Amino acid sequence: MPEMYSTVAWAKSSPEAEFSKIEIKRNVAGDDDVTFDLKYCGICHTDVHFADNLMGGTNFPCVPGHELAGIVSVVGKNVTKYKVGDRVGVGCIVDCCMTCSGCEGGEEHLCEKGMTMTYNDETKFGHLATDSGWTYGGYSGSHTVNERFVVKIPDGFPLEAAGPVFCAGVTMYSPLVYWKANQGGMRVGIVGIGGLGQMGVRLAKAMGNTVTAISTSPNKEAAAREIGADNFVVSTDPESMKTAGMSLDLILNTVSANHDLNHYLPLLANKGTLVQMGLVLNPHPVRQAPLMFRKLNIAGSLIGGMPETQECIDFCSKHKIVPKIKMVTAKDLEAVYKELHTKNDSIVRNVLDIEASK
């Protein structure tokens, strides 16, 4: 085992337990590594899924958090892109095999051997280590990763708001680029105007597209239009859905609750694409005829690779797209998790203030 150092973290010891402050160990920075002092970590709905073991397979103690932002404290001798004092972050990926076609193509999230997620994942590739054998996330005081997985936060971009860009931001940015919405001129629909959806609306609009926000809640219309939506569709209103029929080239569906994806297919123009992005565990029954007669596509997308993550925050900085956030401390985690359990459509992202929590 490599040389280790200790740092503070906030963890759950079981699904039923409350968060408590513990000490964890991470590897000391090697020649190719960067260590940074964590200042902030966004709180994602996925954190709740893992910390409460809702999908099974969670390792405890569980230290969640994959929206990290902080200041570089140590760099290895081979590190060229970062120096002590730089503002940096880490998103959902902390390791990969580095040799497969996905990794070599800058799509580490498509690693053929399986990317190593920032928390609750086996440290299998040997580029980082912990005292448990599984990764610890950003609800902690310090982090060390290979420089490949570090993102530079542009000057002027608020450090406390950077973390959500590495998760919600790139999750929406990646499919927009893949389906060429970054070239502008497309009709893009965003289903669900929560943490993911609000980033999607703002990114799609900044890329030069006509954006339609789609929600079950009529009361989301004002907020959706405020962040750039040109049109608003109430998905529970048959008349609203009918009016918007065949009006969209691309739909990004962020809904994570169980739902019927067929409901959104009539909104697509011929040859349109519906991209599923919410973590829905139940299978979808798909009606094949609409796909055949109108050449429709159903696809999926999840986060993005490291080059794309850097592109995303650079784009957000250039276009002044800053996530709406609410600062919280470790003592607030129980209340925040309770809220996320019952509601996942808030435009505001909770961000854990690490220094204020110590």
What does this 3D model show about the protein?
The strands form four sheets. Strands 3, 4, 5, 8, 9, 16 and 17 form a seven-stranded mixed beta sheet that branches. The chain has a six-stranded parallel beta sheet with strand order 12-11-10-13-14-15. The protein has a two-stranded antiparallel sheet with strand order 1-2. Helix 4 crosses helix 5 and helix 4 (168-178) crosses helix 9 (306-318). 23% of the residues lie in helices and 26% in strands. It has helices at 45-51, 101-104, 159-162, 168-178, 195-206, 221-226, 238-243, 288-294, 306-318, 333-342, 354-357, and strands at residues 4-11, 20-27, 33-42, 68-75, 87-90, 93-95, 116-117, 142-146, 151-152, 187-191, 210-215, 231-234, 248-253, 268-276, 297-300, 325-328, 349-353. The longest helix has 13 residues, at 306-318. With 358 residues, it is of the alpha/beta class. The mean pLDDT is 96.
Please bin the fraction of helical residues. 10-25%
Number of helices: 11
Parts with pLDDT < 50 across at least 5 consecutive residues: none
Q: List the helices and strands in order.
A: EEEHEEEHEEEHHEHEHEHEEHEHEHEH
Rg, please? 20 Å
Large-scale geometry: globular
* Span between termini: 28 Å
Q: Approximately how much beta-strand content do the residues carry?
A: 25-35%
Q: What's the mean pLDDT score?
A: 96
Number of strands: 17
Major β-sheet profile: 7 strands, mixed
Structural class computed from helices and strand pairing: alpha/beta
